[in-house]
Amino acid sequence: MCLFVQRTFTLLFAFCIGFLSAQGTLQFNQALLVDNSNSPYTVPAGKVWKITQNSYGTRYFLSSTSTFTANWTGTMPNPCTGATSGSSVVTALNYSSCGGVNWPTSNGHQLGQGSGLVTWLPAGTVVEVPASPCAHTASANIGQNTVTRDNRTSAYQCQTIQISAGSTVPNSNILSTVEFNVIP
Question: Would you state the pLDDT for residue 74?
Answer without folding.
Answer: 94
